[in-house]
Amino acid sequence: MTGKPELMLAEQSSKERLRLWLRLLAVTRKIEAELRERMRTEFDSTLPRFDVLAALSRNEQGLRMSALSSVLRVSNGNVTGIVDRLADDGLVVRVPVAGDRRAMLVRLTARGKEVFARQAAEHEAWLDTMLAELSPEEARNYASRLKTLAQKLDEKGITE
């Protein structure tokens, strides 16, 4: 690197931010791969199914398919297939929306609530084990910094 000190500092800063991104990505991929494998082997399920159950558990009244897609940030087509299989397994039901013949709410069944509660407890325990190298304070600090970064990206119009 040759040139003005400001340019050299900017180049170094850029490289450090690139390294940070690559490390965040690598860690995220490792954790996600492990969660996928454990969900598959221990529950014969998938992370997308877990995500749908999680979204519905936070919305006890149910969600329209479009709202569910929005919450999960995936297409309606992706959610439809997952909801179909969850319904076949008795974990969710579709309920007609009063006054809108085309719309359906998706809700967890009692069995769906039980299955999700077991999965959520294990999911949390897996993550606790994987992230055990971080103290609770470090975890809180990382989470806070990443939340701030996400907010700044949102302000810049950079969304998922």
Radius of gyration: 21 Å
Strand order of the largest sheet: 1-3-2
- The chain-level mean pLDDT equals 92
Low-confidence segments = none
Number of domain units: 1
- Helical content stands at over 70%
**Tally of helical runs:** 6
CATH superfamily: Winged helix-like DNA-binding domain superfamily/Winged helix DNA-binding domain
Q: What is the CATH C-level name? A: Mainly Alpha
Shape: globular
How much strand? 5-15%
Largest sheet: 3 strands, antiparallel
> What is the terminal separation in angstroms?
35 Å
What CATH architecture do you see?
Orthogonal Bundle
CATH topology: Arc Repressor Mutant, subunit A
State the order of secondary-structure elements, H for helix, E for strand: HHEHHEEHH
**How many β strands by DSSP?**
3
Which structural class best describes the helix and strand composition?
mainly alpha
Oligomeric state, counting identical vs distinct chains? single chain
